[in-house]
Amino acid sequence: MDGLDALKGKYLEGISGAGDEAALEELRVAALGKKGEISLKMRELGQMDPAVRQAAGQALNLLKDEIDAALRAKKSALADAALDERLKSEWLDVTLPGRPRRQGTIHPVSQVTEEVTAIFADMGFAVAEGPQIESDWYNFDALNIAPEHPARQEHDTFFMHRDPGDNRPPHVLRTHTSPVQIRAMQTLGAPIRVIAPGRVYRMDMDQTHAPMFHQIEGLAIDRDISMANLKWVLEEFCRAFFEVDDVELRFRASHFPFTEPSAEVDIRCSWDKGQLKIGEGDGWMEILGSGMVHPHVLRSAGVDPDEWQGFAFGMGIDRLAMLKYGIPDLRAFFESDLRWLRHYGFASLDMPTVAGGLSR
Amino acid sequence: MKFTLSWLKDHLETEATLDEILYALTDLGLEVEAVEDRAARLSAFTLAKVLHAEQHPDADKLRVCRVMTDEGEKQIVCGAPNAREGITVVLCKPGDYVPGIDVTLGVGKIRGVESHGMMASERELELSDEHDGIIELPSGEVGERFVDWLAQNRPGAVDPMIYIKITPNRPDALGVRGLARDLAARGLGTLKPLDIQPVKGEFDSPISVTLADDVKDKACPHFVGRYIRGAKNGPSPLWLQERLKAIGLRPISALVDITNLFTFDLNRPLHVFDADKVHGSITVRQAREGESLLALDGKTYDLGPGITVIADDQAPEGLGGVMGGEVSGVSEDTVNVFVEAAYFDPIITATTGRRLKINSDARYRFERGIDPAFTRDGMELATKVILDLCGGEPSAIVEAGAPVDTTRTYRYDAKKVVSLVGMNIAEGDQRATLEALGFTLKGDMATPPSWRPDILGEADLVEEVARIASLTKLEGKPMRRTKPGVPKPILTPMQVREKAARRTLAALGYNECVTYSFIDGPSAAMFGGGDEATRLENPISSEMTHMRPDLLPGLLQAAARNQARGFMDLALFEVGPAFHGGEPGEQALMATGLLVGATAPRDPYGSRRMADLYDAKADAEAVLAALGAPQKVQISRKADAWWHPGRSGVMGLGPNVIATFGEVHPKVLKAMDVKGPAVAFTIRVEAVPFPKSKTTTRAALGRSDLQAVERDFAFVVDKGVEALALVNAAQGADKALIESVAVFDQFTGEKAEAQMGAGKKSLAVSVRLQPRDKTLTDEEIEAVSAKIVEKVAKATGGVLRG
Are A102 and B599 within 8 A, CB to CB? Predict the structure, then answer.
């Protein structure tokens, strides 16, 4: 069949030069429409000699496909160009701020409590709790602090009101978390390993004191727990908590009515430009009080001191937070200043774990 | 407790250095708080010799001296009458700071004559009040440091002052001798023996002593007295004055200074009466109603039964164990004295001290417990010192009562020490330690010394051994896990829940606060508290008088403080206890969130709007979901008085209130100075039930492949109809088929009433039908729709909006 090359040349050129979809459609109708040039040629095939017809048919089909493909390709190219053009005009100022979203925070006291809990949980300590308004028996007597013991005066205790005629000794706001030792042993008996974090209260308010603060108590009672075990547990705790490879603790003999022997525990540290470094330097800083649980305390809680022995310790959660995170002022913990909460607070998903680390 | 190194060495024979002593004290539980280097302020001064002195040409009272110093010969003008050739003096050079006159010297010209420094008097160097002339030293070489000379010849003036903190269990350490005993037990030297020689009485005391029945069994069981006549009271000798000054006491007179010496040296408080001011004899008794005493501190105290007084025939002359009286106290003119050494009961002394609000060195010691067996010996030693310093003639001892017998024995078990401490201390060493501390050991029984009232059981023996052996040497030993393997979770479900509430609230954009558990009475009263049961008897301030009945007042106060600083948009929360009574356990765990101001700052997209009731509700629901609360809760309007009555709701499960949400009452906001509106919610964390099933397996997921159908309905209802009633009614039309009913529109207000009639509003709900076994036909859908309309009409009176 003649003239196919010319046809091909004409349409391919036309397609490539088409400026919009309408022009393309015109070309399609002219070539492939019912009365299009190629369609007409197709019709001619019927009158052909069968031998010729086969070759011509093939050539025509080939041409038809080629033009059809060219039309499609061009159509797609035109659509892309049009989209590009439209998108260019849809410019937005990407430097504008994102939609505001509130950022919540966790208070350092909660965060540090969870950190401490994670460490002691790994050493098998459960978490015990007790009331904050406490009877004087739990807060004092059971802990070997007799009514006239000078230590009782040194506790700066808050007393609850007593109605006239109610002759019980007034309840107190617990001055330490130690009464939870008694309650936990009464409930769980021995052996026992618990920590007890929570609010405690002392009548003291100045630059470095607040009338409420947080303590965490630790208690481990078994048949053969010694003060050497206590030291190891505290060393492990400090290493994990302060996230340093080495810590050095110093036990210093001291006195608490509820432990015997008693020791204040100092940690080796240095202060450099207000920055505390644990585990190095020549300084010692007192971080907690501890000792072997006094037989009187065990007996108060219904545990036989001839069979059981163990240690207890208590430390300040707020103080631990101040030391670890460089927070200067205790009283600010309870002032709820938004700037403070945001600056010293923690993200909701910063959950301390032994596996994932305590802090980011 | 303060003392000086030389004082300590009166009792302790030691070669130990100051640092070794300080380290040992702290390690023994006698924590060193401070060490004052008293030589430091004198360290610049050197010895010099006056070579020649002559009259100043222009001043009668001045002398021009040529002085040999370590820097050669210098000219110094001096006004002291004793400035003369040949004496050894203390030189202060230009540039030196002279403490007693608070001046840094320069080269000066005095009446036209140059002066290169000064020669100091005792007062100028704060050594004593002596200022009649310059210091003349009996020995010393030119150029020698004055502090070195003092250390050699007058150590009491310069040796270091040590300040230690004494724990309340160690009254014996309130005397220097007790400290020396501990150090000796530690191996830092040997305790020098105390030479107690009875002093022979020359006559019988004209003053007799009686212990009244109301004190002799407990308050004052033992009294030892002695009359000394013809004593001369004046300033005490230099060594004694220096000793007292070093520990911050003002020397007064020999007799008073001696009592102070015995208090701090041997923990044996004494009292000295001017015998001529005592009327008749002495009786120790309880004070009577209406009696009073002018005490040595110059204040008059009202006394009464329960207070132990030392009285003469007329009136109380002293408070037993606490303070002496002014009237019968000694003065410069005193010649006859009556010395008192007695034992006063610790508890009664403490009670008296607290009742009268007197803090004295005597009270501090008696209430901790002095050595009851040392009363007579203390008197003998005191007599000797008084006779040495003041002269006089002693009477025979007057004694009433007898020492309290505190003898007691405890089982001592060397193995128990090793087991409790976890340190291998040989039994021989343990025994040596106890004996050095004054314990008597017989087999496996130990008797504590009379000066250790704190030793009350076997455990105390362990502590003594461990303390002396040094806990610093203790080495950590791993503590086994209770069970091998992966530990079980240790938090209780409630603890997990508390944490979930906290973390969820922070994730919702709230900032966690920790506010005080006590608030002011008016605020507490506004929130259902403020009663007597939750009142503190001794609050630290008027802002902290009552236990908080709710967390909201604390958060509102925090909001007000932040608003005052210019932060107007706030999202605060707290998780913690609120108190509904004053008994242990009358507290409940709450989680409270507070939204004040707008939900967002201004932005270009118009996100900012004021937080409203529905924000609070959504956040409360999110927290409840995190706590595992059931999804369906009842909502009532019976919120407490501090909520906006029309804009608050209570979420309940049966009779249990689990949460309240809504706007805070405007009157409350006004009273608490919060610029509103403010919305909040309070969740009663413990009231939310725990799921009954403990299994981790979830129910099978029922998913239908059949197409769900959504149909929207708009109803016209009375304004007061609650959406939940409508939703529940629609839901009830076909419980199997209707998967959910959601309110998607509300049309209220003037325009709505104009369209639909006065007092009307429109609520639009979307109902989702989920067929389970076959596709719904149009007829079925129509049938359900009709049922929904019917049910809603029945429940709410609503009609389909035309």
Answer: yes
